[in-house]
Amino acid sequence: MADPLAAMAAALSIAGTGIATAWAQKVVGGATVGAMAEKPELFGRGLVLMALPETIVVFGLVLGLQLLSKVAGP
Amino acid sequence: MLSPERMARALIVGPREKLESVIGTLHDMKLIHLVDHEGEDDTFGIGKPLPPAAELSDSLLKLRSIANILAVKAPPKEIEAVRLDQLRERILSLELGITDEDAARKKAESLLGDLDRRIEELEPFAALGLPLSAYRGYETVAVVVGRVAREISEVDLGDVPAEIFQASGIVAVFTTKDSLDRLLHVLGQFGFAQIDIPAGEADPKELLDAALADREKWRTRLEEFRGRLETLREKYAAFVVAAEELLEVEVDKAEAPLRFAVSDHTFVIDGWVPEKRFHAIAFPLEAEGMYVESEHSQAEHEEPDPPVLLRNPKPVKPFEFLIHLYSTPSYRELDPTLFLFIAAPFFFGFMVGDVGYGALFMALGAFAIAKLKPTSIWFRLFFVTAVGGLWSVLLGLLVFGEAFGLPFHPAPGHLEELSWERFGIFVPMQAVIHKAFGIGDMIYLSILFAAFHLGFGYVFGFVNEMRHNKKYALAKLGWLACLFGLFTLLTFSLAIRPSPNRIALWVWDTPLGWFPRAIQSELSAFVGLKIPLASLILIFGAFLGLTESIIAPIEIASLLANVMSYARLAGIGIGKAAIAAAFNAAILEGFVLSGQIVLIIVGIVFLVLAQVLVFFLGWISAGIQALRLNYVEAFLKFYKGNGTPFRPFGARGTQEV
């Protein structure tokens, strides 16, 4: 493990994006369940909206992996 | 298979006096999806319900109220045969008998409620012991009664003139009317909550005893009423269920003219019929003297879309509910059931990747086929899982070499690892990927599956858009190129690393051997990554998306996110295997292999519990994620949905033809 700062940066990028995703999904999820109680056929659209914030954490993951490969690589 | 059943528009015209018999025929055939007639003009208006409709609905209403009173829920084991002509009479007499019982029960219940309140009111006063007449009728003395948190004495009240009576938690304070305000203020500090003094003069203890006796008496009576209703339920449940079913059908028929166009002498029924079955509906009606016209629905884009009846081969059929759950396909797009049938169980199998659990899932499927009705939701759920189980067995046997979280053989270089060999079971198959040590391989495979899955999504999208808008179809091709560019880029970057991923290296050298290898060095230096020029050009295929929307190229990043999202396949696969391995290691080494008989028995119990837990965890997480990859990542590339499911007149519940 070469650079502890880079490793911490990788951890931070995952943690930050993870929290952001969780927060966004909390908001979307609550609203979606509410909407589905009224109109169950909204399931499909609700699920898609629910999954959109996951993009954030995926980017965090990519960034984290990039950082780690810079640290561990030659 | 890939497109829904073709529909033909049917117009049935006939003389009004034949309406009832036509409704009967259509209802029995269960083939026509009615289109409601709307609007009125000089000749045609909305039809009126058939004469028996009012009486039938009234009977149905009464019957439902009876079913409600009797609390008839599940259908009884044997259904009674009922006849329509006797129905009304039986319902009326049943209602007569039951409403009396029900009224008596309700009266008893409300009386008991009153008594409960009365008892609650009297209890504190009975504890204080003073007759009720002692609390009222004074000229200068005021009384307050209430609950307090702790005992209080006259000292606590300071200079307020007062006399105190108390029992546990209850206090009655007598004071002068002038000091009442001060008293309440002081009492407030002890958490005093005032209660009303009940009406009456007598001794509260006696009143309480009388109320308690009353309550006992009414409770026994209520039990009697309930018992009688219970007997009635047992006696009539079969009748109620059968009659309700029959009446629903009859009401449905009697009210059908509300959906037709009717003039003084004729009626017109408008609806959709599966094209192949058109003759099945036309012949019997024409024999009755009706005029039946068919209109094929292809070119007219103006009129509303026909209803959608999916047609898939038998093994794919149970997957249709997963499509309807998301959204019914529209009539003019490809039916994605087959797409889902291939992708979802494969992803499920990849994530579970274990012979043991896979076999259990297949056993669930076998149970469903043997014991459950194909229309029940559990049948479909178990069947879908079983197809995933089949993949799981195949992949577990041929790729992962694992059963119940325990590998067939220890991984090379990790000979201390527990495996089936320790129990004397030697499976000839060798694992191609050891889940615990092949994280890189698992992630690369996820990317590979993403490329195929999303690629087919774009192909489907291309086909859908070709029927609709050529420019959008071009955009789909652009996105397909972009996806391929991203895939080659990812493969390349994993293959050229100092420690290359073996699968990526193979893909890069063999199936992608033809791919141009030129690297644009200035750009690579700028980005900091080596990028094959051809990949870069392909990625810019996304700019064809400009025909779709001006911001389309920004979506390249979200396509990359979509591809990375498939890493969950690897993540859950490894995660589930790790949980199972941890349980196995702890329980097998700690208990089962200890050699002491008691520990072995305890260990086996633990082991079964742990395996059941992992089984359900795997089922839920792998199932949800396999569906989600289809619903979110893939369906967004081509699937619009929003169709109307085909509901033939006369069918109850789900579609059937």
Kindly describe this structure:
The complex is a heterodimer of chains A (74) and B (657). Chain A is mainly alpha-helical. The mean pLDDT of chain A is 84. Chain A is built from three helices and no strands. Chain A has a single domain (4-72), classed as F1FO ATP Synthase. Chain B is an alpha+beta fold and 657 residues long. In chain B, strands 1, 2, 3, 8, 9 and 10 form a six-stranded antiparallel beta sheet that branches. In chain B, helix 11 (439-466) runs antiparallel to helix 12, helix 11 packs across helix 16 (555-565) and helix 17 runs antiparallel to helix 18. The mean pLDDT of chain B is 86. Chain A binds chain B through residues 41, 43-45, 47-48, 51, 54-55, 58-59, 61-62, 73-74, and chain B through 325-327, 497-498, 557-558, 560-561, 564-565, 567, 628, 631-632, 635-636, 641.
Write the layout of secondary structure elements.
The complex is a heterodimer of chains A (74) and B (657).
Chain A (H helix, E strand, L loop, with lengths): L3 H35 L4 H9 L2 H19 L2
Chain B lengths: L6 E9 L3 H11 L3 E2 L10 E2 L6 H18 L13 H45 L12 E7 L14 E6 L2 E7 L3 H9 L4 E2 L9 H52 L5 E2 L3 E9 L3 H10 L3 E6 L23 H7 L10 H16 L2 H17 L5 H24 L1 E2 L2 E2 L31 H28 L3 H26 L6 H8 L11 H7 L5 H7 L15 H11 L1 H24 L6 H42 L19
Antiparallel strand pairs in B: 1-9, 1-10, 2-9, 3-8, 4-6, 4-7, 5-6, 8-9, 11-12
Short characterization:
The complex is a heterodimer of chains A (74) and B (657). Chain A is mainly alpha-helical and 74 residues long.
